[in-house]
């Protein structure tokens, strides 16, 4: 519980810092994309570090789906204290992970008022997923989508090499 | 355990981000002080937020020392999974909080090699303390000192109004 709020507060601070700093530089709207990239990259590195610890005692995975299930269950629970509520896949490398009550969105209103603010609170977590998967051998592109807060969907497209 | 590393990794990212961004701006050495201030201020806000949650069900404190004891024990444990090891005071508003194995310093070498790097990993935590105390009615100045990592001392000087 305590740690949860620590992470939530810290995450809020980072998001607000990254955006404020861009404003103070007078960057234009186009360059605001770099805020998202920055947060995503931070998440990526944190995800890489975390998954290394979480999988220390885990036997190897039998396939891609097995990796995704681990990420939805163990990885997500370790960070957000709940699992992903729903995992769907087209069995061709695309996965949709749905969290019906995403921790980092709950401090925002659950109405539509802050809907346009949502993406900046999702970038870090997209990075977390991409970092974790990358360390487990899956290079991917991760995007997020919100329709009704605090629910959200992460789409993972595994890159075939 | 999981959450601990989440906080540690995230903290590392913030520190490295704040310093990198200053370098990229070409700021000179004098202005590096602002990195410390920035991290301290983030810690301050997080400390304020956290203490509010932690003290929700706590009866009020009987005096300044009582507040300090709470911070050393409950507040510190909630964040760092261990208490402050030693609390000393001159009974005139100055307190020295010693942590013999400070979590955010342990990833650095425990030798002298990274000693000069230590301050940037302490600024956030100085802010945490100052924020928590401020919300409990004590305005203070908090500084940190390291002699042999990963041990460190936080000095709190309560400002009498």
Automatic annotation (TrEMBL), chains A, B:
CDD domains reported in the protein's UniProt record: TRAPPC6A_Trs33
Keywords recorded for this protein, A-Z: Endoplasmic reticulum, Golgi apparatus, Neurogenesis
One BP annotation, GO: nervous system development
Pfam entry (one): TRAPP
Subcellular localization(s) per the UniProt record: Endoplasmic reticulum; Golgi apparatus, cis-Golgi network
Organism: Clupea harengus (Atlantic herring)
InterPro entries: NO_sig/Golgi_transp_ligand-bd (IPR024096), TRAPP_component (IPR007194), TRAPPC6/Trs33 (IPR037992)
Entry function: Component of a transport protein particle (TRAPP) complex that may function in specific stages of inter-organelle traffic. Specifically involved in the early development of neural circuitry, likely by controlling the frequency and amplitude of intracellular calcium transients implicated in the regulation of neuron differentiation and survival.
GO CC entries: cis-Golgi network; endoplasmic reticulum; trans-Golgi network; TRAPP complex
Name of the molecule in the record: Trafficking protein particle complex subunit 6B
């Amino acid at each position: 519980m305590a740690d949860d709020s620590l992470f939530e507060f810290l995450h809020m601070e980072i998001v607000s810092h990254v955006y404020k700093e861009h404003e103070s530089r007078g960057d234009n709207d186009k360059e605001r994309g770099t805020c998202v990239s920055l947060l995503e990259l931070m998440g990526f590195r944190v995800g890489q570090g975390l998954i290394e610890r979480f999988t220390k005692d885990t036997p190897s995975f039998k396939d891609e789906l097995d990796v995704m299930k681990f990420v939805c269950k163990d990885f997500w629970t370790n960070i957000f204290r709940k699992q992903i509520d729903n995992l769907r896949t087209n069995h061709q490398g695309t996965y949709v992970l749905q969290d019906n009550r995403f921790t980092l969105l709950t401090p925002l209103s659950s109405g539509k008022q802050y809907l346009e603010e949502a993406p900046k609170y999702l970038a870090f977590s997209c990075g977390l997923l991409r970092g974790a998967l990358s360390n487990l051998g899956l290079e991917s592109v991760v995007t997020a989508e919100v329709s009704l807060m605090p629910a959200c969907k992460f789409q993972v497209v595994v890159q075939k090499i």
